[in-house]
Write a structure and sequence with these properties.
The complex is a heterodimer. Chain A is mostly helical. Chain A contains five helices and two strands, in the order αββαααα. Chain A has one domain (41-161). Chain A has helices spanning 5-27, 56-77, 86-93, 111-118, 136-161, and strands at 34-35, 38-39. The chains are: A mainly alpha, B alpha+beta.
């Protein structure tokens, strides 16, 4: 198909006009790289981001497909430690940090939450899965809680075993 | 009496027939595709079947408490005190001989049946048996109907009623789904035949093996050899579910 040259010029000028209008709006707030009031998320990447399982562009587009596929092979077939693991993502992107506040999924600073909030994506992964890496000290804290609970259960059992008056 | 027994015997057979029909359908749908396999390969050439052998002679009350405690640490669950909705991954059962007063304690958990009724009743296929015999809940497809809890004669399953926080990476668990003992499947997938479930680890100190994990289908495995030599009890064997957890000394 061939386009008539004057028509082509008209099209080019329309495109240019549109582009300059967008440029005017963008020029108002270029420094914070935002459009209107909503900031485009730029989540912190881990130091060894280059070692991610796929290039960034692929991960941005397809991470959900990788995770969905692998969750079934993991649960049904027991294939653990393969390339796309949710635990692997979390260990790298939201690792356990000593003496620091845990970043949870509810926090916009969470690696996953930043983009999901921006794109209005609602996921329920973290209703069950851990949304942060776990350090050994945090692990032992949890064990301590279990210990305390165990103690309270023991007292409860003793009460149960006492003969009742009725 | 005889007819009752006949009926009991019929049930697994019917299951076998249904299973056969399902397998046939599967091969027709996807020829050449293995629907279920597992990360661990069998060494005996036969289909793997993981199981536990629990020696109740070697277990004191404190030992069984240690099992429960270890399971809680491993999977991050807590049993609410005096609650009918408490988590049932593993619990302590006390047997008392009323005549002699002799007491015996045993850990009770999912028995990983060969013919699990929880799988039969699940409307979504979320309750399933892996190729290596471990019975699990796929929480991605569990709708929380709790049919499996009703079906399980061992009361081995429980429902999560409340929003949870701080779950452990190895044990995802959340509101609206059913859960039970996984035979420490994350350890099994990592270590295979050398895996030691958390409850076994808690009581197998100093070389004794009060809880033994292994492949029931491998005649050379330690668990099979011990079963052959000493025998063991399947709880409620009359139901013909063929549990993978066996008890000695009952």
């Amino acid at each position: 198909m061939q386009i008539h040259p004057p028509l082509l010029r008209l099209l080019a000028s329309i495109i240019l006009l549109g582009a300059s209008a967008v440029g005017l709006v963008a020029a108002a707030d270029v420094s914070t790289s935002s459009f209107g009031e909503i900031a485009i998320p730029s989540p912190n990447k881990p130091a060894d981001a280059a070692n991610c399982v796929e290039p960034v562009a692929v991960m941005r587009r397809d991470h959900m497909k990788f995770l969905l596929h692998q969750r079934d092979t993991t649960v049904l077939e027991g294939e653990r430690g393969k390339k796309y693991s949710l635990v692997g993502c979390i260990d790298c992107h939201n690792p356990a940090k000593a003496n620091e506040e845990i970043v949870r999924y509810e926090d916009p600073q969470h690696f996953c939450a930043g983009c999901h909030n921006y794109a209005s994506v609602k996921i329920d992964c973290f209703e069950c899965h851990a949304d942060r890496g776990l350090s050994s000290s945090q692990q032992s804290n949890l064990s301590l809680q279990a210990d305390r609970l165990q103690l309270s259960m023991q007292t409860f059992r003793q009460k149960l075993e006492q003969p009742r008056g009725d | 009496m005889a007819t009752e027994l006949d009926n009991i015997e019929l049930r697994p057979a019917r299951r076998q027939f249904l299973k056969g029909a399902a397998a046939l359908a599967a091969t027709l749908v996807a020829p050449g595709v293995m629907l279920y396999k597992t990360g661990q390969a069998s060494t005996s050439g036969q289909q793997l079947r993981w199981g536990l052998l629990i020696d109740t002679n070697a277990l004191s009350e404190a030992d069984v408490d240690a099992c429960v405690d270890a399971c809680q640490r491993e999977h991050g669950w807590k049993a609410e005190v005096n609650s009918p909705t408490a988590a049932q991954w593993i619990r302590k059962v006390k047997l008392t001989d009323t005549e002699s007063g002799h007491q015996r304690f045993l850990p009770m958990m999912c028995q990983h049946c060969a013919d699990p009724p929880c799988v039969d009743v699940c409307p979504t296929g979320a309750s399933f048996k892996r190729a290596d015999g471990i019975v699990l809940v796929n929480k991605h497809t569990c709708i929380g109907c709790r049919y499996c809890m009703m079906a399980c004669p061992y009361k081995a399953r429980s429902f999560i009623h409340e929003t949870l926080k701080d779950q452990l990476p190895v044990a995802p668990r959340g509101k609206g789904t059913v859960e039970s003992c996984t035979l420490c499947v994350h350890r099994v997938d990592r270590d295979g035949a050398n895996a030691v479930p958390a409850c076994a680890e808690a009581v197998n100190q100093g070389g004794r093996k009060a809880i033994l994990f292994g492949d029931l289908n491998d005649p050379q495995s330690e668990i099979s050899q011990r079963l052959r030599k000493l025998g063991a009890v399947k709880l409620r064997a009359d139901m013909g579910l063929n549990p993978g957890v066996r008890y000695q000394g009952l």
